[in-house]
Hints:
Layout: E1 7-9, E2 15-28, H1 34-43, E3 56-65, E4 68-77, H2 87-91, E5 96-102, H3 106-122, E6 128-134, H4 146-155, E7 159-162, H5 171-181
Parallel strand pairs: 2-4, 2-5, 5-6, 6-7
Antiparallel strand pairs: 1-2, 3-4
Amino acid sequence: MANRTGTAQRPNGQTQGKICQFKLVLLGESAVGKSSLVLRFVKGQFHEYQESTIGAAFLTQTVCLDDTTVKFEIWDTAGQERYHSLAPMYYRGAQAAIVVYDITNQDTFGRAKTWVKELQRQASPNIVIALAGNKQDLANKRMVEFEEAHAYADEHGLLFMETSAKTAMNVNDIFLAIAKKLPKNEQAGAPGGGGQGRRLVDGDTGPKAAGNCCK
């Protein structure tokens, strides 16, 4: 796919602004709520019992920033260890990543640190990484302190928010923060990944992106 500059037209002929398309991948241990975060962001829904992702699921959603529309190509990866070897296929060429852990499970925070280290070593050099401490609605069962995760994120240059897919707390905000940090006036990077394991979900509420980046 060639990199092209895109502008969308409003019905009255006025230019809506630039359209930028970015590949975003979600990583983290199984059952931390990656699919629930994506479902909340894309469709505004939450299912108490979410089936485990097999391989990866593909979804799209847009975020509007002033004169720019950011379209996310979202790869929601499986957290089970047996799928770990597939992860590079999904984060290769990604401009952004959300590494998710469960605030009620210390082990998932340790696993999140491993994912961050892998991304910083093997993913695109300028990738924007956000750390999401999910299940904030279960704060009374907290095992990972906010201050601990925040300090880790600061030390490693990560965006950080605690989220709740159940209550929608900070779900849109974390994607919006990533969208604001992505380089919209320079080449964004390699095009999105191939169609392996691709599953489209009706969440593409914005205009179609014209290319992989915009200038």
